[in-house]
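Justification of resources, computational component.

The compute hours requested in this renewal are based largely on the per-chain cost of generating structure records like the one below. Each record pairs the submitted sequence with a full structure-token output. That output is archived, and it is also reused by downstream analysis tasks.
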Amino acid sequence: MRSDTAVRQLEYAVASKLEDDAWGHWESTVYGEVFDHVEANGTSADMAAVVGHISESVRDGHRPDPADVKAHADTLMTAGGKPLTDGGEE
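The structure output for this chain reads:
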């Protein structure tokens, strides 16, 4: 999933859970850097999980901080408990 698609998916998911127009386009694009990070380093499943995480938080009345969302995304993309690397040699 591309980062711009993730933004749209987040908008749809959140809009279906809120009774008012409390979620604007700007708010969903706040996570754009996180989506770009996941697009570059993760899989479509990782992206869907990040969108789901944000959506669930909003449903519970909380708007997660982008730094917290990035930290969550990094845990999804961490294999074997080791942080993501660029694959380079030391």
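The mean pLDDT is 75. Helices lie at 3-15, 25-29, 32-41, 44-59, 66-76.
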